[in-house]
Automatic annotation (TrEMBL):
CDD domains: PGM3. It comes from Mastacembelus armatus (zig-zag eel). This is Phosphoacetylglucosamine mutase. Catalyzes the conversion of GlcNAc-6-P into GlcNAc-1-P during the synthesis of uridine diphosphate/UDP-GlcNAc, a sugar nucleotide critical to multiple glycosylation pathways including protein N- and O-glycosylation. Coiled coil: none annotated. Residues 52-88, 114-169 form the Alpha-D-phosphohexomutase alpha/beta/alpha domain.
Length: 545
């Protein structure tokens, strides 16, 4: 086939280093940028085949999110803006690791397995983040697409969620929105402005928000979006990329892990601040108290704020829709208790990883999901959206129900349902705080997190640990879960679980309890049990105190 001749010719310009093996994981491929040229070319090929198979446009995003600046990566986006399916993740790994002379065979293998009609038209949308390596790497993707005769639209610098949004808009023939960056700002910001009209007399102080852009793409896009907000949100932008390094001592991941504010931001006591990560698909909020104490509001607090708001609106609208919050085992026990016992909201627990949360959220009329790290969004079923629209448009609806239905409609429009989106989540949170007239301290006080501790234990082989019940219980090695259960019984309000890392030979340990000292001691004792029963390597874990 002439197409394969072109692939062969182009592929020699993007050669694979012999012996280099990479795995396509939840975050796609991620490693040092110098090792990625061949991967990008091949993901251009795979996206083109995927497009021909689905008869739809596919997205390819060049980013390494919260990784250091010298890294890069790539993720594929499926037709509705969702993550690519597990089978195709397997194909991505297969294609990436084929040695140079075996590339065409690997390509043919996928085409045959999936019975792809190669004469079908193909369309691919490409986006990239602000890393210095992203330009040449996104060009390699484009080379891959054109080698198989696909049509490519290069969106240039966009956040990861913006690319997901563009793909969804295009494949729904514009029903989800206009597939341009301008269209994205217009839809989200108009909905935000409509929502804030329901807030009474906001002062300039209440409209003010400090944003840490992680020296990444999110900073650029906040600047672009600002003029669409018509002064309804006044943003002070820090770590805007003009001098600092991407993700270096800043960004959502740094703030969450280090439990302290980013460098380069001026914090006045009680002021609302938020941080994006490197590709703007995660967000966390925080403030400092009068005594300088740092307070973090992570994904659990965000999910609680949003689900409480939505539940109240459903009640006011008289709509009987099933709303649920989807969490992982890492969600703080206090948030689960508050949602289930006080708000009477359904809580589902899934394995760690956004795709598991997204899938579980799709089972409900309204599914709110957030990982503790600040990645999350809200999904509305088609039926739920139609019921809300019907209520808003029905002339017989009384005023209070109509107001609630209109608020729900604008909430739907401010949310990017394809994927977690820091810009969209920020607008939603700001609108809810304004409507409910809440300060960040009042939001934080909804419930108090149980003190917790996370540790890592190095093991010879992480596969000896097998878990069940959404990773909350260990099935193997023998005796480990029994050991954890008896340790947990020693402390008040305690719980602990262990799970193998997805990327390295370590076992991650999580513990929470009534006091920080108890949580620390429990985490250490569980680490020792893992070390002794699951083949720990190196020195025995040392106590934290």
């Amino acid at each position: 086939m002439a197409q394969f001749h072109e692939v062969s010719k182009q592929s020699s310009l993007h050669p694979k280093p012999a012996g280099l093996d990479l795995q396509y994981g939840t975050a796609g491929f991620r490693t040092n940028a110098k090792q990625l040229d061949h991967i990008m070319f091949r993901m251009g090929l795979l996206a083109t085949i995927r497009s021909k198979k689905t008869k739809a446009t596919i997205g390819v995003m060049v980013t390494a999110s919260h990784n250091p600046e010298e890294d890069n990566g790539v993720k594929l986006v499926d037709p509705m803006g969702e993550m690519v399916t597990p089978t195709w993740e397997g194909y991505a790994t297969q294609l990436a690791n084929a040695e140079q002379e075996g590339l065409l065979t690997a390509l043919r293998d996928i085409i045959e397995k999936e019975a792809v009609n190669m004469s079908q038209e193909a369309g691919v949308f490409v986006g990239k983040d602000t890393r210095s390596s992203s330009s040449s790497l996104s060009q390699a993707v484009i080379d891959g697409v054109s080698a198989l005769g696909g049509h490519c639209k290069d969106y240039g610098l966009v956040t990861t969620p913006q690319l997901h949004y563009m793909v969804c808009c295009h494949n729904t023939q514009g029903k989800y929105g206009e597939a341009t960056v301008e269209g994205y700002y217009n839809k989200l910001c108009q909905a935000f402005i409509q929502l804030t009209k329901n807030a009474s007399n906001r002062t300039d102080d209440q409209k003010h928000l400090s944003v840490d852009g992680a020296n990444g793409i999110g900073a650029l896009k906040v600047r672009e979006m600002e003029r669409h907000l018509k002064q309804e949100l006044k943003i002070s932008l820090f770590n805007d990329g003009s001098k600092g390094k991407l993700n270096h001592h800043c960004g959502a991941d740094f703030v969450k892990v280090q439990q302290k504010p980013p460098t380069g931001i001026k914090l006045n006591p009680g002021e609302r601040c938020c941080s994006f990560d490197g590709d703007a698909d995660r967000i966390v909020y925080y403030y400092t108290g009068s005594e300088g104490h740092f307070h973090l509001l992570d994904g659990d607090k965000i999910a609680t704020l949003i689900s409480t708001f939505l539940k109240e609106l459903l009640t006011q609208a008289g709509l009987h829709l099933k709303i649920a919050v989807v969490q992982t085992a890492y969600a703080n026990g206090s948030s689960t208790h508050y949602l289930e016992d006080i708000m009477k909201v359904i809580v589902r627990c899934t394995k760690t990883g956004v795709k598991h949360l997204h899938h579980a959220a799709q089972q409900f009329d309204i599914g709110v999901y957030f990982e503790a790290n600040g990645h999350g969004t809200v999904l509305f079923s088609k039926a739920a959206e139609e019921k809300i629209q019907h209520l808003a448009e029905d002339p017989n609806t009384d005023d209070s129900r109509k107001r609630a239905a209109l608020l729900l409609q604008n909430t739907i429009n401010v949310i990017n349902q394809t994927v977690g989106d820091a810009l969209s989540d920020m607008l939603l949170i700001e609108a809810i705080l304004a409507i409910k007239d809440l300060t960040i301290q009042q939001w934080d006080a909804i419930y108090t997190d149980l003190p917790n501790r996370q540790l890592k234990v190095k093991v010879a082989d992480r596969r000896v640990i097998d878990t069940t019940d959404a990773e909350r219980r260990a099935v193997s090695p023998a005796g480990l879960q029994e050991a954890i259960d008896s340790l947990v019984k020693k402390y008040r309000q305690a719980r602990s679980f262990v799970r193998p890392s997805g990327t390295e030979d370590v076992v991650r340990v999580y513990a929470e309890a009534e006091t920080q000292e108890s949580a620390d001691t429990l985490a250490h004792e569980v680490s020792l049990a893992v070390y002794r029963l699951a083949g720990g390597v190196g020195d025995e874990p040392k106590p934290l105190h």
